[in-house]
Design goal:
148 residues, 5 helices, 36% helix
Amino acid sequence: MPQISLHSPLGALTISEDNGKIVALDWGWGRDQEETPLLVEVRDLLERYFDGDSVDFRTIPMEPYGTSYRLRVWEVLRGIPYGETRSYAQVAALAGGSPRSVGGAAGANPIPILIPCHRVVGTGHLGGYSGAGGLDDKTMLLGLETGE
């Protein structure tokens, strides 16, 4: 499976591709590095994103592995615009399930940042985040997008 890594404000990130679609974004430097046109494009978009550019990741072909429910939640998350947030309850209203089940699906997101689970927040609190830095990473990503 081709993968490419990059340095980011969150630390090293590795993007993985399978059959012409992005399937994972992981914290850490990948062992094997194999550039493909899609991986280079996504790496470049992520670098622009971390430089503070408003980047729309919805055009990237992705195929996250998950249950049908998780896929529905992740599709709703992909629709949250740059710089905006939605509550777990708002996502549940669109995808079905409960705020708790949305949190579980967001926590299992295999392609964070590109599928922006960091844009889902609790009522009166941030909620959780599955990135290596936890809520610090979520806070940094939200601040990057809002200019704070």
